[in-house]
Amino acid sequence: MTGSARWLVPAAIILSLVQVASVGSRIVTYEDILAHGKRYLFKTAPVDPYDLFRGRYVALSQENLEIMVTEKETKEYERGGKAWVTLKTGEGGYTTFAGISKTPSGGEELKVEVAWAGPRYAPPPRDGKAAVKEQKEWSVHIKPPFDRYYMNEKLAPEAEAAYRNRGEGKINPYIAVRIKNGRGVIEELFIDGKPVGDWIKGKEEKQ
Amino acid sequence: MRDKAFKSRLYEELPGLVADEVIDIETAKRIMDHYGPLKKSGARLVILAFSILGALFIGGGVILLIAHNWNELGRGVRAVLSFVPLAAMQALAVYMLASEERRESSAWREGVGIGWNLAVASAIALVSQTYNLGGTMEEFLFAWVFLSLPVAYVVKSSFSLAITLNFLTQWRFSAVHSATAWLFWPLLLLCLPHIIMEHRKNPTGALTALLAWVYVYAIFSGVMGTIFGGSLQNLRIGMLFTVAGGLYLFGRWLYRAQGASFGRQPLAHLGHIVLMALLFVFSYDQTWKILERETHSPAGNAYETAGVLAAFALLWLFGIWKAWERGDRQAYILGLLPPVAWGLSALALYGNAFRYVAILDNLYGFAAGVLFIYIGDREDSLVKTNMGMVLVAGLAFLRFVDSSQSIIMRALVLIAIGIAFLTVNVRLAKRPGREAK
Fold it and tell me: B82, B285, B297, B407: least buried by Cβ within 10 Å?
């Protein structure tokens, strides 16, 4: 091998190890979260788009993505920036987002992305006779890290169609998420208490 | 390794040298024997293209096979399988690099480079899918670009670098409001050494030209992202002209010696086109009013804006110096637009003279067009004449349809331009047997 080419094979090996380590470290992190993270349930509503790079998935929209803050607090949050939301488990064992801060507090919380922060115009109160005045409120819209659930190409549109044809309040979709140190990984998408794959199979057997 | 472009030009010159009796036929033959035959690149290009297509199709097919039974597999198995395409391409790269013959083959280099680059993306994507990770396109693209950039240097693959550059540009668009958007510039600089090496090896080669075009596109995309997503909004217009002017003048200096064709001079010609486009765009007073519009951006982007501006200002100064050094006065016609644009920006912003700066922009564009027409006529160059006429006619058309101007003003402008065209026509008609240059 010539002088300048001698480093190429070691360089390729080192680069390969860096790439494997980078991707592998993500796997280790996520497996740790799934194994040791605390389980939370979030109510959700599935939609079915297509991700060019990552295949068919069901987009999940959680409830309560808008967190009320003061006008002064709004200026702390920038679109695309990171924030920490406090988790609160309530009725039926479902979790909602209760508060937001710029830094972690060490409690039950999740790291999210800020979608946008700004004024929220609330409808003015009506007292019948008094003049109507607008009230301005301030809020931060967040984007949680678990906004999609990847499924088989045939099952994803079926899950979405089944949800859309559910009728009023007849289907209860929610996701189980493991969270550790502010990072969350989806464990499963449930519909009416069953994993989504089993739920779809059950519906097909009934038909 | 003999430079193919040099050989090609030398062999083209030899018959002329023999005819002028500078060298005799025997000497010409000895020169050709010394450098060897000029290989046709056609067959090699086919081999290279087939290699690239083969890598893409095999990679795609393997991914589809895995995807078919993907959901039946456990999460752990899927996590391991995510590495399979990447590990395969890494092993192939080491195998390729272990042999000098394979290393020297562009088919091997480009095929492996593309495959390895795409395998990095597939590994990241498959892990994201396995763990249902949302994230953003911005995060995915950044990870891909960061991990795939070194591939181009290790296997010496220009197509791999072109892929990385393309997605670096996409990342810049998606990260326009991100506090880490400034990382675009150091990553872009890291791509430059490979392009310089390709340029030295083969200045007028197709791959060199491809990389240069993709690189220039990336630069402009990054600048647009900095200008419209960043802070220091008052500098926007001056910055646009400075970037275009810097690339235009630097490109003229860089390619002048090689006499490269249009397709192989991306810097100069894209800079030229953008400068002319900017003249058209800023011929409206409303366009100058973007100086008044605010943008919301992370505070750190002020440093990015200032850094990018300083870099291109230096490039412009270098280009002006080189143009003066070699007596390239024609470079000044469009090359002096940046300082003019800065002056007009200041006048608009602090003098509130939007209408007047638009008029001055029109006058400059009109004068530049007339100069190009004059030079083209004097040098018998239809390209330069046409360039001038595009400028003049374009501005005239924009004023004709500009309803913000009075009809009388538009009429007078058009009459003046019409007289100018007829004058040029009369002069051209007086010159028989002109050939296009």
Answer: B407
- Distance, in Å, from the CA atom of B274 to the CA atom of B252, rounded to the nearest integer, reads 14
Q: Which residues of B touch A197 (CB under 8 A)?
A: 71
User: Is the dihedral angle over the CA atoms B338, B344, B350, B352 positive or is it negative?
Assistant: negative
Beta strands across the sheet bearing A135-143: A66-69, A135-143, A109-122, A82-89, A95-101
Closest CA to B75 of B119, B120, B128: B128
Considering CB atoms only, which of A13, A55, A185 is closest to B131?
Answer: A185
Amino acid at B60: G
Q: Are A54 and B128 in contact (CB under 8 A)?
A: yes
Instruction: Round to whole Å and give the CA distance between A30 and B8.
Output: 57
CB of B400 closer than 8 Å to CB of B410:
yes
Give the separation between CA A54 and CA A61, rounded to whole angstroms. 18
Task: Give the mean model confidence (pLDDT) for residues B335-364.
Answer: 86
CB A164: neighbour CB atoms within 10 A?
12
Please state which of the ranges A53-57, B7-11, B267-271, B419-423 shows the lowest mean pLDDT.
Answer: A53-57
Give, rounded to a whole angstrom, the gap between the first and last alpha carbons of chain A: 68
Q: Is the dihedral of CA B282, B288, B293, B299 positive or negative?
A: positive
**What one-character-per-residue DSSP string does B253-266 give?**
HHHHTTT--GGG-H
**Cβ distance B247 to B315 under 8 Å?**
yes
Higher pLDDT, B384 or A54: B384
The two tokens of residue B136 are 């953003």
Which stretches of chain A sit within 8 Å of chain B by CB?
A: 1-2, 5, 8-9, 11-13, 15-16, 18-20, 22-24, 26-27, 30-31, 34, 53-55, 57, 78-81, 113, 143-152, 155, 185-186, 197
Higher pLDDT, B69 or B218: B218
- Would you call A1 and B100 a contact, using CB atoms and an 8 Å cutoff? yes
Query: What amino acid occupies position A178?
Result: R
Residue with tokens 């389980």: A39
How large is the ipTM? 0.77
Q: Which residue of B94, B103, B128 is in closest CB contact with A54?
A: B128
Q: Hey, are the CB atoms on A23 and B83 less than 8 Å from each other? A: yes
| pLDDT at site B437 | 40
Nearest-CB residue to B129 (from A54, A144, A155): A54
User: Would the pTM of this model clear 0.95, i.e. be above it?
Assistant: no
Q: Which residues contact B179 (CB under 8 A, 6 or more apart)?
A: A78, A80, A81, B298, B300, B301
Distance from the Cα of A1 to chain B's closest Cα (Å) equals: 7
Q: Looking at the complex, report in whole angstroms how far the Cα of residue B396 sits from the nearest Cα belonging to chain A.
A: 43
Lowest mean pLDDT among A11-15, A185-189, B56-60, B105-109: B56-60
Compute the distance between CA of residue A195 and CA of residue B6 in angstroms, rounded to an integer: 68
Is pLDDT larger for residue A168 or for residue B266? B266
- Two structure tokens written together for B119: 């395998």
Measured distance CA(A113)–CA(B46) in Å, rounded: 47
Give me the pLDDT at residue A53, please.
41
Spatial distance between the Cα atoms of B405 and B399, rounded to a whole number of angstroms: 8
